[in-house]
Amino acid sequence: MKRLLPPLNALRAFEAAGRLGSFKEAAAELHVTHGAISQHVRLLEEWLGAPLFERHNRRVALTPAAQAYLAEIGPLFERLSQATARYGFPDTVSRTLTVNAPATFTLRWLIPRLAHFRAEHAGVDVDVDTSNEPLESLKENYDIIVRGGPDTFYGYSMRPFLSEERLPVCSPALLQRLPLRTPDDLRHHTLLHTSSLPRLWPDWLTSATISTLKPAATLTFDHFYLTLQAAIDGIGIAMGPTALASDDLAAGRLVTPFAGPRLQSRSYCTYVPEGKSANELVELFRSWLEQEGRRSQTDAAP
């Protein structure tokens, strides 16, 4: 029985344009011109006898039928890529993973662990971009995106790998100079704030039933990693995320002067496009993140 197959180059152009939401970005990915993408898509629309895209100025949107079609064929392209890697010419297949993650998470947690991954998997390269943009606003097609969660996004699989709590942290040297016996002693200290997370200290002080406490001073930074560094340097007390401060807590660079209260926070999760979720390298890195997440939380446990 003869297979009903559309023009494969046209199908490839459609898959890239539909996945990226842009003919221009599809052309860049496939190393062809914008006009070539348009021509291939038009050819496929004629072959199928139905429109695939709605044109909106510089962006394009899939029709409902085309969304369903893309959901079917996207994983097929990924399976074809994997089969080629296994049985074809592996030297021609990329062994590079593209990852997008928040800057503080990347600096404080991911980078210190990447050397271990590279040592265990020497043939795999990892390209990391940092961003705090919402997942749905990212334009580039990443293999793995790290964001808070758990959340549900259409077209992505989600898995949590690192839980998070927040409580005061500081340098042990600071406690030697100015002890903290009870939360009320915070009135003698400098409280370190992050401008993007203005509610951390007020929420914790409320949980500790000292919402009216007035500290000796406050200091605000625009990035969370700067706030943590200021705490390590003994400048004041920070509201530390237990996950991102786990290495410093384990090494004794930071301590937690109080056992609680602990503010619950969102977990770190991996979000992977459904067409890539079966990719061998993606699964390898994803599982490694989960393993490292369990290890770091065990090391930081009091």
From TrEMBL:
A Pfam family recorded for this sequence: LysR_substrate
Organism superkingdom: Bacteria
Residue stretches making up the HTH lysR-type domain: 6-63
InterPro entries: LysR-type_TF_proteobact-type (IPR058163), LysR_HTH_N (IPR000847), LysR_subst-bd (IPR005119), WH-like_DNA-bd_sf (IPR036388), WH_DNA-bd_sf (IPR036390)
PROSITE patterns: HTH_LYSR
Keywords, comma-separated and alphabetical: DNA-binding, Transcription, Transcription regulation
Keyword hit for Transcription: yes
Keyword Metal-binding: no
Annotated family: Belongs to the LysR transcriptional regulatory family.
PANTHER family referenced in this protein's UniProt entry, alphabetically: HTH-TYPE TRANSCRIPTIONAL REGULATOR, HTH-TYPE TRANSCRIPTIONAL REGULATOR TRPI
UniProt protein name: Glycine cleavage system transcriptional activator
Source organism (scientific name): Paraburkholderia metrosideri
Designated gene of the protein: gcvA_10
